[in-house]
Amino acid sequence: MNYNENIQTILKEQEITETTEIQSRSYQSIKDGASVIGLSPTGTGKTYAYGLPLIEKATPGDYQSIIILEPTNELAVQVRDALQPFAKAQGLQTMALVGSGNRKRQIENLKKKKPEIVIATLGRLFDMVTENKIKPEKATALVLDEADDLLVLDSIDMIGSFSDDMPEDSQILLFGATDSETTRNPEEVFGNAFILVDVRPDITKNNIHHRFLKVSNDNKLDVLTRLSSVDDFSAIVFFSSTDSLERVAQTMSHRSLKFGVLANKENKMQRQRAISDLQKGNIDAIFATDIASRGMDIKNLKYVVNYDLPKTQESYIHRAGRTGRMDAEGTVISMGNNHDFRDLKKQANLGDQLQKIYLVGHHLTIDKPFSKPKKEQEEQSTKEKNAYIEETRESLKTKVDKIPTESKQLKPKKKVKKNRKRQQKNKGYHGKKA
C-alpha cells in the first residue's frame, strides 16, 4: 500500500504491518474520488479501508468536508476513536455527533473545532442540518458505514436529500458486511456511478462450523444452561428482539450461566465491560440483539448461539461473522425444531454445511447418541415395570405381615377400679324429692 509517511507511522505504532483485502482493493478507487460499494466480513478493517484514503486526500481547513454516518452511538464513537490518530497526524480535526451527547455542547464544539471529519448518527446529523449547523454543500465525501442498516425505508429519503445538496462531483462510499436491495442499486438513490468491491468469502468457509441443535421452545432455557458447561464455552447469544432477550435474561439470572447483556440501552462503558468480562472468562456469554452487536469485536470467540433464529441470510452472515475471525476456529449453533432446520438450510444457503449437533453430558458431538432398537426398548420397559410391580408387592407384603392376627391378639387392658370413698359415690344431681 502507498499510504503516506504520516499514516504509515501511526500504523507502525499500532503494529499493523499488513493490509486486508478490502483495504488494498478499495484504496486507489477511493483515493481517486470514485464512489464505492465495499462489502467485507465484520472484523476485516473496513473503517481503515474508507477512512485512511479519505484522510490522506483531505485538506486542512475544509470544514465538514467528510461526513461519516453510523447506525448507533457506540459505532460513531468507536470510528472517531479509530480515525483520530491518523487525522491528527494530517492536521485534521474529528468530531462525533451522537444522540446521547449534549446538543448545546456539540454545537459549541462545531464552531470551536471546525472539524474536517464529522462522524454522526443519522438522527443527530439531521438535527444539525435542520438548525443549519451542518451544511451538505460543504461535504465532498459521504460515507455510510453499515450501509444496509442505514438505507432502510424510514431514512432513505433523508439520506438521499442530503446527498442531493452535496457538490455534483462529491463521493459516496457505502460499506458493510452485507448488501441489500438499496445497496445493490444505489444509483437510484444517489445518482452516482459506483464501483463494487466485494471481498466477502462464502460463509461456508472451513474454519466456521455451522451446527443445529434440535430443541423445543420450552426447553431452550435448560439447553442454554447446559451449554455453559461445555469445555471452553464462550459465546454471543443472539435474540431477535430486546423483549425476547430481557425475558430470557431475567430467568437466567437465577441459573448457573454467567452472562452480560448488550441490548440497545447500554452505554460505552457497559459494552466495554461486558466484552472485557467475556474475554477474561469472568462470564460465559453475552446476550445481544443484531443492532447492538454491530461493531463488536471479540477475539477468539468460540461460539455464536442463535437462541432466536435470524430472519434473513444477511442477519445470519452478520452473526456468524463474530466467530472464526482471522481464520480461527469457530462454531455457530442454531436452536430450533425440524421445521426450523429445513428453513435455515434454505434461508442461509448452507446446504449440507448445516449439520445437526447433540449435547451429550458436557460435550457437543455431531455423532447421534446410540439409542436401542424399539423392540429392545419395549422389552427393557416391560422389565422395569415388572421389577417395579414386584418391588411394590414385596413392600405391601412386609406391611401386611406386621398386622396382628388371631393367634397374636392383643390382650385387652385390665379395667381399673376407681378407688373412691363411700361419700363420694353417686354425688351427681338426682332431682328434688316429691
How would you explain this protein's 3D organization?
The protein is an alpha/beta fold and 434 residues long. The protein has two domains: 5-198, 3-Layer(aba) Sandwich (Rossmann fold), CATH 3.40.50.300; 208-365, 3-Layer(aba) Sandwich (Rossmann fold). Helix content is 39%, strand content 18%. The protein has 16 helices and 15 strands. It has helices at residues 5-13, 21-31, 46-57, 73-89, 103-113, 122-130, 147-150, 156-164, 181-184, 187-190, 220-227, 242-252, 268-280, 313-320, 338-347, 374-401, and strands at residues 35-39, 66-70, 94-97, 117-121, 141-145, 171-176, 194-198, 208-214, 235-239, 259-262, 285-289, 303-306, 330-336, 354-360, 363-365. The chain has an eight-stranded mixed sheet. A seven-stranded parallel sheet has the order 3-4-2-5-6-1-7, with helices on both faces. Strand 12, helix 14 (313-320) and strand 13 (330-336) form a beta-alpha-beta unit. Helix 2 packs parallel to helix 3 and helix 3 packs across helix 4 (73-89). The longest helix has 28 residues, at 374-401. The mean pLDDT is 85. Residues 410-434 have a biased composition (Basic residues). Residues 369-409 have a biased composition (Basic and acidic residues). Keywords: ATP-binding, Helicase, Hydrolase, Nucleotide-binding.
Strand element count = 15
| Number of helices in the DSSP assignment | 16
CATH architecture of the largest domain: 3-Layer(aba) Sandwich
Broad shape: elongated
Radius of gyration: 35 Å
Overall CATH class of the largest domain: Alpha Beta
Mean pLDDT across all amino acids: 85
Q: Which band does the percent of strand residues land in?
A: 15-25%
Overall domain count: 2
Q: Helical amount among residues, as a percent range?
A: 25-40%
Strand order of the largest sheet: 10-11-9-12-13-8-14-15
Question: Biggest sheet, in brief?
Answer: 8 strands, mixed
CATH homologous superfamily classification of the largest domain: P-loop containing nucleotide triphosphate hydrolases
Structural class: alpha/beta
N-end to C-end Cα span? 137 Å
